[in-house]
Write a structure and sequence with these properties.
The chain is mainly beta and 346 residues long. The chain folds into two domains: 19-224, no CATH class; 234-346, no CATH class. The protein contains one helix and 24 strands. The chain is globular and about 60 Å long. The relative contact order is 0.10.
Length: 346
Amino acid sequence: MVARYHSRTWREVPWDYGEQLSAVTCGMYGRAAPVVSGLRMPSIHPVCFHQGGMGISARGRLVVACGNNKKDKARKWHHDFAVFGVAAGYGKAYQPSMYPGRERSSTSCCVHVWDKHGKLIHEDVVKGLPQLDGVHIDKDDNIYVMARPTRVFGGKRYFNYMSETLMKFKPGKGKVIVGGRAPIPLSPAAKPKRTQDLTSRWVEGAEWYYGGVGYAGFNTPYAGGGCACWYARFDLDYFARSFAPEMDQFSVAVLDSGGNLITRVGRYGNVDDGVPLVKAGGPAKPRPLGGDEVSLFHAGFVTAHTDRRLFISDLGNARILSVKLGYHAEEKVKLKDVPDEAEKGR
């Protein structure tokens, strides 16, 4: 379910196309509450407690990654969900259009878009997506995802197999084809005649790729399997710039809307490394790092306040950093000679 609330009053802001429900909970040991008008997701509970994420554009459009496993294959509700009463699953099974090589598993998902009124406007906008660690939408309805599979370039996989891949798609233009097991197997003749774009996958229609980001706990073929309880999230600001954690580089990559690297924020360091702009409440004698003075150890979650601030959750140092954003060159222009602005200044 997706319900929305006003951040000052925490009163629910009902969707015009939503449904009334008696008890909705946030998950394990969560408190249940009624919802006046929530959006029932076309989603089946995946294997992970955390799901693929959601995002909201400057136009108020909502994008959500919804688990799309078969209904008879969906994981049973964890017993902890019933702590506050009988557990109820409000999600509805969704039947995507299938094709040879389309993944449908306990971690794969379908991405859908709703307008600001809660009306579904784009369905299954990028077909065949694997597990995601974040999804966003810009003002032009372009879709950005951080997908679990590692980037492959020129037939060579990025050396850090725990890393993920950030991609951009136009709505309805993307398609992912898996080279391994799928409900409808991919015949040898149907395989794309080129090297794969991600681990075990070909991608069609992507505007660009940026690999080496995120942290995919399930990408552990050399360790005999793993867990995705530790994962990551990226963010998109109102200028369609992506902020993606690069875990093995102890930094956050900042990309423009074309997928080009603008800069990196942070470098390796502990809590007493880096001299902050506001020293109150921090280490008594911080050690200078140079550069942006942002020290990171295991920073997997970021949120951007457009061109004002970047908030980084550095789990390795058990803290959240507030990073002030700026530009290499700035210029202020006086508006005193502009009639409407001059009146405002009096």
